[in-house]
Amino acid sequence: MRVLFVVWELDPFLKVGGLGDVASSLPGALRELGVEIRIALPYYRALHLRMVRKYEVNKFHVTYDGRDEQVTILRVAHPITRVPVYLFKNNRYLNESKFPDTYAFFNKAIIEAIKKRKISFRPQIIHINDLHTGLIPLLIKNYGLEIKTILTIHNLSYQGETNEIILDKLGVSKAEALIQKTKKGNRQVNFLAEAIRQSDLINTVSPTYSREILKEKFGAGLDGILRLRKKDLYGILNGIDISFSTLLHAKYVKYPFVYNGILKHFYDWETGKRYNKRFIQHRMGLKVSGNIPLFAYIGRFDPEQKGIEVMYQMLNQGAIKKYQFIILGAGKEEWEEKYRLLCSFNPEMVSCHFVFDTGLAQQIYASSDFLLIPSKYEPCGLIQMIAMGYGTLPVAHRVGGLSDSIKDGVNGFLYTNYSAPNLRKAMDRAVKIWSERKEEYKKMVEAAIRTNFSWKKSARDYIRLYEKLLASSSKDGESGQK
Questions:
Q1: pLDDT by residue (tens digit) across 36-89?
Q2: HSE of 187, CA atoms in CB hemisphere, 13 A
């Protein structure tokens, strides 16, 4: 089977969020299982391409907003997976990421390149991701191409609403799209809603999230459209690149450790955790003690999703008198200021760092006893998987992918009902096992480290959906011949 995987970010060329990780790992896992796959990405000015050799594939013109725009297609190999990557270059629209024109133009350039045979690869399936590629299924139908599409929703909250004039720029009839009126009477197109309507199959990045978004509480205004597509909606849990599970990012961690076996210069996990905890406490100015439980939070300061207001309430309700906290992340300035003030009054118990530093994050994972994930909703989440690889038990709200990846009392702790008191109860339960039931805690840590989040299982699930698409394509062909 031949699949074109279309994204707007791809690690290590450009990484903004979790999609960059997925785009880097999933196509490689699919390729190992026999899928003939290519990746398509805009050629932004900010791409980091020094590590790869570029080859020019073709040049052609795309008509957009009444002008003929030259597009150059270059090809590189992903430096880790070796999956071929097509880079679409245009100085006006694809130099930087600007909604909506960058993505509308990119979507049209993809379809024109296929229709005009400007790439030799002939995809049977186009796998699109989130709003940025959301108009591709509409354009496929508009051009009459016999290509199947699957949409992966990584986060339903980011939808891409814009004026209906975008359809005029693309040369697409407004009758083919869903035009919605705003409260002010403006007529808008929603990129993600269009993708949901037009794609042949849809999946989210965890089974639980696929069920949650059918309800108004989690549907972000699209639950009605999603319920109409319920029979075509699936959930596949993301994986992670598990190469770190043996070496544990040794270059970032002061005392690298392994769970099983002995490697030169590596510690066993219990010794490594103990040494790293002492190291990070000293580095962060916290009271150095192996008898105080250390909780970490690593993530965005996003009150709409990440639960930072609930965590703030919990800290203010006395948790900082008993437990230590390291908080790493950046986001809303008002929330950064609240946490900065909290840390300044409790320097021995709370340490805050308002940046995102990959190396520091790895050291914090390796050093902490527990990771807090109080998210209001979580499509999948990767940090719980990373933390478990480091033997750090997640304490998380039972939503989305957190429900699918964490087994309460086995490799982490889950709580229901989104509130500071419930978060605190889960923390107290975790600390009770950590402090009073050492053998049970040890078993939980070892279960966490052994949990398999390899992309192979996820890739097999995607292949089953691809096979379903191709089977339906065969049936369409047969019915067309009758």
A1: 999 999 999 999 999 999 999 999 999 999 999 999 999 999 999 999 999 999
A2: 10
Q: How many degrees, rounded to 5, is the angle at CA 358 between CA 354 and CA 364?
A: 75
The sign one gets for the Cα dihedral 241, 247, 250, 255 is positive
Give residue-wise pLDDT tens across range 207-251: 999 999 999 999 999 999 999 999 999 999 999 876 544 444 567
Token reading at 2: 């031949």
* 8 A C-beta contact, residue 77 and residue 84: yes
Ligand-binding annotation for 230, yes or no, is no
Nearest to 259 by CA among 249, 271, 241: 271
Contact status, residue 342 vs residue 316, Cβ threshold 8 Å? yes
Cβ contacts of 437 within 8 Å, gap of 6 or more: none
Write down all domains in the chain, each with its CATH number in brackets.
2-239+456-481 (3.40.50.2000), 244-453 (3.40.50.2000)
Bridge partners for 61 per DSSP: 70
Question: From start to end of 354-447, where are the E strands?
Answer: 370-373, 393-397, 413-415
Report pTM. Answer: 0.93
